Amino acid sequence: MTYKPLPVSIAEARECWKEIQSSMSPECIHQDGEATEAEARQNYRDALRDALILHTKFPHPKDILLEALEESDIKKFGYKDFDDYYETWKKAMGYDD
Fold first, then answer.
1. Residue-wise DSSP of 17-42
2. Residue 13 and residue 73: Cα distance in Å, rounded?
């Protein structure tokens, strides 16, 4: 699902981010339990790569939750750690206490 060329509008980018969000869900990564561990890891790397490519032109929207496996992956989007990422997402979604 590599985005070449990159989307040209914010609306197109938003649709790409929604696709990536879906692609990074555990169900999709593991193909509903059908993928081997190696296949699941590759699916995750592919989705993360697409997210990072898209992020270069259209920064990650704060209301799109990417289910990152490693804290180091979430840091690539400018967050300090998982807690910072999750709190930012909650605030963007209006769940801030």
1. HHHHHHHTSHHHHTGGGTS-HHHHHH
2. 20
**How far apart are the C-alpha atoms of 76 and 73, rounded to whole Å?**
5
Cβ atoms < 10 Å from Cβ of 81: 12
**18/76 Cα distance (integer angstroms):** 18
Is the separation of the CB atoms in 35 and 80 below 8 Å? no
pTM of the model: 0.88
pLDDT tens per residue, range 1-20? 555 688 999 999 999 999 99
Q: How far apart are the first and last CA of the chain?
A: 36
Q: Tokens at residue 22, please?
A: 């879906």
DSSP 97: -
